[in-house]
Amino acid sequence: MSVLANAWVARGTSVTLITLSDSASDFYRIDPRIHRIALCVSASSHNALTGAARNVRRIRTLRAAIRAETPDAVLSFMTATNVLSILACRSLRIPCIVSERVSPPNPAIRGPWALGFRYAYPRAHAIVAQTDRAATWLRSRFPAVPIHVIANPVVLEHSSNGEGNFTHIVKSAAEGQFIAAMGRLTSQKGFDLLLRAFASLAVARSGWSLTIIGDGPERANLERQIEALGLARRVRLVGLLRNPHQVLRRAAAFVLPSRYEGMPTALLEAMACGLPCVSYDCPTGPREIIQDGINGLLVPPGDVVELAQALGRVMDNDDLRRRLGGQAANVVRDFAVDRIIAQWDKLVRNLASPNRGAVSELRNPASGV
Q1: Model pTM greater than 0.90?
Q2: According to the model, what pLDDT value does residue 156 have?
Q3: Are 238 and 263 spatial neighbours (Cβ–Cβ below 8 Å)?
Q4: CATH: 3.40.50.2000, 3.30.470.20, 3.30.70.60, 3.90.600.10. Which one for 166-333?
C-alpha cells in the first residue's frame, strides 16, 4: 500500500492513507505529500463481546474519516480490515475496492471474522486478487462481485537509508557464502521447516550460513530450534531491516519456505536483486513468479527433504546460481511499478463515482486503509 500511495502522489494524485493503528508503528516510508490519518483503534480484544464492541467503534470511526475525506474510491488491504472497510462504506455511495493479500481460503480468518468475510465481501464494489488461482477461488465464492487480478509491484531501495546494522550482518557472513530468507517470523512463513532442511546440509557445507531477515511472535521458538539443531554459529536471526536489499544483494541465494502465500513480495525483491531462489510451490504465489528450472526452483509444499535437496543443488553449483539469478532479475521488468499502477488506475477510474468528476482525473482515489 505504501508503494501504491507513493506512486500515485508522485503522479499528482491526492492520496489519503488511513490505518487503524497508531502512526508510531509505521515502518515503510511514505511521501510527505500523502495525507496520513492514524485512527488508533487497533487494540486487541480478550473476548468476543469486547471484540464486537471495538469493531463497531472501528467501523464508526473509519466511516467518519472516509466521509470527511470524500474520496473518489476507497482501497482496502488485508481481510479483516477489508470487512471493516466495506461495512464503513455502506450508504456512503463511495466505491470500496478490497484487496485479498493471502491465498484464499486464508487459514488465519476464523470465527467471527469468517462470518464477516462471507457477509461483507459480496457487498464490495470489486475484489482484487494477486494471482489467477486466487481469483478463481474468489469467483467461486462471490460470483456477483467483479474480481480483478493485479500482482504486487517490485521496488528496490538503492541506499542504506541509515540502516545501522547491515554492515555487521554482511561482515559476519564474510567467512563464507550465505543463503538469505525474509519474512515475518510466524508459522505461515515456514522458517521451522527451513531450519530442519538447512541442518541436514550444514555439516557437509561448512562454508555456508543462513541469514533470516524479519521479526515476529515465533522468534523465541526459532531460537530454541536453532540451539537444538546445533546451528547457533551458522544461522543468524537479524531482525527487521528497513532496507533488506543491502543484505540481499550480498547473499548467494534466497529461499522462501512459506506454507502459504498471496504473492510473496520477499521473493520478488530477492529475484530483483539477481538471486537464485528456491521456494515451496505454495497454493498461490511462487508459481506465478518462478518458472521452475529457468529463473528459480520450486519444490513440493512442506517437503523438508526436497527443500534440502534443492538448496544443496544451488549451494554446490556456481553455474546454476549464475543462470537462475540472471533470469530472476527480469522480474524488475515484469512487475514494474508503472505496469502495476496502470492496472490499479484503470480499475479505480472505472469504479470511481462519476458525480465526483473522477472519470477524467482521480482527485483523491485512495482513502487507503
Answers
A1: no
A2: 78
A3: no
A4: 3.40.50.2000
